Amino acid sequence: MISILKRSLLYILAIVLLLFTGYPFIYMISTALKSQPQFYEAPFSLFTSFNLENVQLVFEMGLTRYFTNSVLITVLSVLAVMLFASMASYPLSRMKFKFRGVVYLLFIAGMMLPIHATLIPIFKLTQSMGLYDSLWALLGPYIAFSLPISVFILTQFMAEIPKSLEEAAELDGASHFSIFGRVILPMVTPALMTVLIYNFIHLWNEFVFALVLISTSERMTLPLGLQNFKGEFSVNIPGLMTALTLASIPVLLIYLFSQEKVTTGLAGGAVKE
After folding, report:
1. Tell me: the pLDDT tens digits for 19-34?
2. Rounded CA gap, 185 and 200, in Å?
3. How far apart, in whole angstroms, are the C-alpha atoms of residue 217 and residue 78?
4. In 3-state terms, what secondary structure has residue 235?
5. Over the stretch 218-252, which tens digit does the pLDDT of each residue have?
6. Best exposed site among 154, 196, 201, 241 by fewest CB in 10 Å?
7. Neighbours of 213 (CB within 10 A)
8. Distance of CA 21 to CAs 16, 18, 44, 182, 257, Å?
9. Mean pLDDT within 149-163
């Protein structure tokens, strides 16, 4: 009887949390399907209309261009972060060398560095390199500020891999590069997927660096381009909600596909001796 009561309470709690977290997304989709007059008449009603004019409107306002820019810079940055972080984490977790702890602490210290304190130096550096107002101007800051947390996650995960696997590969004549590519990386797939999900969501929604380093509309990323839906005296809320709904699709897809690999990898690792 007590176990049934506990299970019922857990189900009730889960339903409450689902409603609490899911309602904003449902409201966003519902508002995206309204025209502006319909929104002002009944702003809190759900799915009372099915108007697709906002989809055409957001694409006419340049959503495709903003979307393409965000996909390009986010994918390149995330791939670079996964490569550099895994290459840095391997020696930090598997090798012994002088000042290893110091190097690791320097990476971790990057997590405590306020982004806003670096805006002026990065702006000056970007101008001096001739990269201002280009997507490539975002690549350096995006990678640099994503590396600390990525190195932390991967280093902790790699440190848990049994040494016996590495020693067995060495006995077979494998080099450090072979061990890294054929032994370590396949076993840290859950951690790599965690790094991918975390950094993709963070960089997809990044606004500050894009605001400082990008000035022309043709090179704006999606978060920066969404400002165009705000006029001087009014905001096109249904249009903005439509753009936000479309912008959330890549994040949801990345999470759904990567989540399965994270779960599978963790389950597989749990039964290894």
Report:
1. 888 888 899 999 988 8
2. 20
3. 23
4. strand
5. 889 998 888 777 764 467 788 888 888 888 888 88
6. 201
7. 23
8. 9, 5, 17, 40, 21
9. 88
Q: pLDDT averaged over the chain? A: 85
- Percentage above 90 pLDDT, the chain: 27
Angle at 23 between CA 20 and CA 27, to 5 degrees: 155
Asked if 76 contacts 142 with a C-beta cutoff of 8 angstroms, the reply is: no
Give φ, ψ of 235 to 5 degrees: -130, 130
Helix (H) or strand (E) holding 68: helix 63-94
More confident residue, 261 or 14: 14
End-to-end Cα separation, the chain, in angstroms? 38
**Helix axis angle, 136-158 to 63-94, nearest 10°:** 40
CATH class for the domain made up of 57-270: mainly alpha
CA 230 to chain CA mean position, Å? 25
Radius of gyration in angstroms for the set of CA atoms belonging to the chain, rounded to a whole number? 23
185-208 confidence digits (pLDDT tens): 888 888 888 899 889 989 999 999
The 8-class DSSP code of residue 230 comes to B
- Token pair 């996650």 is at which residue? 153
Of residues 223, 234, 242, the one with CA closest to residue 31: 242
CA dist., res. 154 & res. 89, Å (int): 6
Residue 145 tokens, joined: 């500020």
Q: Is the Cα dihedral 227, 233, 237, 238 positive or negative? A: negative
